[in-house]
Write a structure and sequence with these properties.
Layout: H1 2-25, H2 47-59, H3 80-89, H4 100-109, H5 143-156, H6 187-193, E1 201-202, E2 205-206, H7 222-230, H8 249-252, H9 255-266
Helix pairs in contact: 2-5, 3-4, 4-5, 6-9, 7-9
Length: 269
């Protein structure tokens, strides 16, 4: 009986030790707060402040530096003003821009209008860009934010800043009901809208920055996949770094879209 109590006491001691270490010894993961749309007082801004706002968005909410960096995932933008003039004359250019400002705006919302050689989607012969429309999906820049980023890129590349600070939108009529956007109908539509294929290989998309999801359901549960979408910093896949995936999908996706995407990925085996 004495041995029993000794064994029981030792077991409780070990369990308590593991509990204490897991709760207090291991650093807790605290994901960064999601980027939010700036509350802009555009009427009181100087151009220098507007350009600084563009830099903040470029390096933050816009997630631009995820690819446009020295690692060579996407073209560097330090000479985008000078390059724009040449690219609009290129026979491969499919856009409609006439000015540097229009070209930069087009490259943000219609990135496939011109794809720099070597940076297109695999198999597209540089006719399709892996970059998503930054005005939608998981980034969702509004027109004022887009204008600020354009001003920042013009300024940082040594070009003349031609952007004008936008006027504030008029307030909606009192009592006007917001228009509810209908939920998407297929997981493929969800993947395209939220730019999943920019980083992941999934549903005919060939992103290579994040984990390959073509058979993710073989090793990951629905709970894991749901958490990975809602709180991407909670568990970082082996071989990858944190801070790459936007943490805002939980706010942007409708519940139906989220569950449809989770069920789709769980079935990829």
């Amino acid at each position: 009986m004495k041995n029993f109590f000794k064994t029981a006491f030792f077991s409780l001691l070990v369990i308590s030790g593991f509990w204490g270490f897991s709760n207090f010894g291991i650093p807790q993961i605290k994901p960064a707060p999601p980027p939010v749309e700036e509350k802009l007082d555009l009427g009181a801004m100087t151009m220098d402040q507007f350009i600084a706002l563009g830099g903040k968005i470029f390096n933050g909410k816009g997630t631009c530096t995820l690819c446009h960096n020295a690692m060579g995932r996407a073209p560097m933008l330090d000479k985008v003003g000078a390059n724009a003039e040449e690219r609009m004359k290129d026979a491969r250019y499919k856009g409609e821009a006439k000015t540097v400002q229009e070209y930069i705006h087009e490259s943000l919302v219609k990135p496939s209008a011109y794809v720099v050689a070597g940076f297109g989607k695999s198999g597209s012969n540089d006719t399709e860009s892996p970059m998503p429309d930054v005005s939608g999906g998981g980034i969702g820049l509004n027109e004022a934010e887009l204008a600020a980023v354009i001003a920042y890129l013009q300024d940082s590349s040594g070009s003349e800043v031609t952007v004008e600070i936008p006027q504030m939108d008029a307030a909606p009529a009192e009592g006007a009901a917001p228009v509810e956007e209908a939920a998407l109908k297929t997981p493929e539509e969800v993947i395209v809208k939220y730019g999943c294929g920019m980083c992941h290989k999934v549903a005919d998309q060939v992103g290579a920055l994040g984990p390959d999801l073509t058979k993710v359901g073989k090793s990951k549960s629905k709970d894991y996949l749901r958490q990975a979408i809602l709180d991407p910093e909670a568990v970082i896949a082996q071989g990858f770094t944190g801070g790459m995936m936007p943490p805002t999908f939980g706010e942007q996706m409708k519940a139906k879209e989220l569950e449809m995407l989770v069920n789709y990925m769980a079935g990829l085996k």
